[in-house]
Specification:
8 helices
Length: 170
């Protein structure tokens, strides 16, 4: 489970170490710091889950405990990623944070790159992994949809979160 395509390192690529004027500067800088923290938490929980999964056979002596631990790490990683890739206008997420950047301080190439990232993080993203993550967020993580609950197998098949199961459209 690795969500990519929206550019976690976009700040370095776009701003290249330059100071950039941002609308509501302090507030936006704080947003990006909170997003970075959320991504770091998701990455840490994903790492723990991956390590547990890879060493599962050696941990078999306490199967129930390790099953719940593995599930907890995966759930928190998904929750953090769902928040980062959400698009709610009052949320701290990639979409609203990227939109708060003052484009007038960027050269044309950087503006184009920023617009590409906004599109990839936006509500109509062409990225199938982000689309799938949002389906999980909207139907399982934030709201447990009754139709999904009764046909979870179909939902899982139509909304994979593994990169090898998804065809990228960007």
């Amino acid at each position: 489970m690795k969500i990519t395509g929206c550019g976690v390192n976009f700040l370095d690529k776009i701003f290249n170490g330059r100071k950039v004027k941002i609308v509501k500067q302090k507030s936006t800088e704080k947003q990006f710091q909170l997003l970075a923290n959320q991504l770091a938490r998701a990455n840490t929980h994903f790492y723990f889950a991956k390590e547990l999964h890879q060493n599962y056979q050696q941990l078999g002596w306490a199967k129930d405990f390790w099953d719940y631990t593995l599930t907890a790490h995966c759930s928190i990683a998904l929750l953090d990623l769902a928040r980062v890739y959400d698009t709610h206008k009052k949320g701290i997420n990639f979409f609203t944070s990227l939109k708060s950047v003052d484009k007038s301080t960027l050269n044309q190439a950087k503006r184009i790159q920023l617009n590409d990232y906004i599109t990839l993080c936006g509500p109509e993203t062409p990225n199938s992994m982000v689309q799938s993550l949002r389906e999980w967020r909207n139907n399982i993580i934030a709201h447990y949809n009754i139709d999904v609950a009764f046909d979870r197998e179909s939902f899982d098949r139509n909304n994979p979160l593994e990169p090898e199961e998804i065809s990228f459209s960007h």
